[in-house]
Amino acid sequence: MFDGKMKAVTFSYDDGVTQDRRLIELFNKYGLKATFNLNSELLGTKNILTYGDKRTDHNKVNPDEVRELYKGHEVAVHTLTHPHLPALSDEEIIRQVEKDREKLSELTGYEVVGMAYPGGGVNFDLRVADIIKNNTGVKYARTTVHSFSFFLQKDLYIFSPTVHHNDTVRCLEMIDRFLDMKPDTPQLLYIWGHSYEFDLNDNWDLAEEMCRKLAGKEDIFYGTNRECFGL
Question: Per-residue pLDDT for the chain (231 aa), expressed as one digit of tens each?
């Protein structure tokens, strides 16, 4: 696992927004890898998000740029239209997930096998996870429930990320702790978020700081979610 190394770093970013372009430039600059979770039926749409007195563009990348933009990284399922999956019928869950997977596989030119559950809060349950496991081509699905740990998890269909980058202090502390570790069992640092949040909070310097801290370490495997899971 991890090409013989005991530590791995991966990132996961949701929604397929145009701010991904800038984030990917940073990842490529520092030799890091990420997984980007896209809603295929929303590609090319434009929107504005408002959080209190903050506003930011929430424009989706165009379908014809997906293959080149995300080259060297991983594209994964985020459902067709970003619904609240626990409220849907079994059949609609399967359609939202598998059709998105099929469309993204066509756009990327490879079989998409990953997923991130759409929405915040309780955006999945065991019924949803079981339906996806048994009725789609998805092989792992990331939740929004933070583990605040680096331990590998057995159930990849309810996989908990380590930390969200918006939890800035804890995120940077966990990066430092991870870098200082000398583990004898495999450990994974998994950071997630939405690239538009760097616009919303005017903190692209945080994105660069995370990349700069983590890059170029001989004892770390840098991979997409899929690569880190050995899929």
Answer: 798 999 999 999 999 999 999 999 999 999 999 999 999 999 999 999 998 889 999 999 999 999 999 999 999 999 999 999 999 999 999 999 999 999 999 999 999 999 999 998 889 999 999 999 999 999 999 999 999 999 999 999 999 999 999 999 999 999 999 999 999 999 999 999 999 999 999 999 999 999 999 999 999 999 999 999 999
- On whether the pTM is more than 0.85, the answer is yes
* CB 216, CB 9: distance < 8 Å: no
DSSP letters for the chain: -GGG-SEEEEEEEES-BTTHHHHHHHHHHHT--EEEEE-GGGTT---EEEETTEEEE-PBPPGGGHHHHTTTSEEEE--SS---GGGS-HHHHHHHHHHHHHHHHHHHTS----BB--SSSS---HHHHHHHHHHSS----B-S----S-B--S-GGGBPPSEETTSHHHHHHHHHHHHH---SS-EEEEEEE-THHHHHTT-HHHHHHHHHHHTT-TTEEE--HHHHTT-
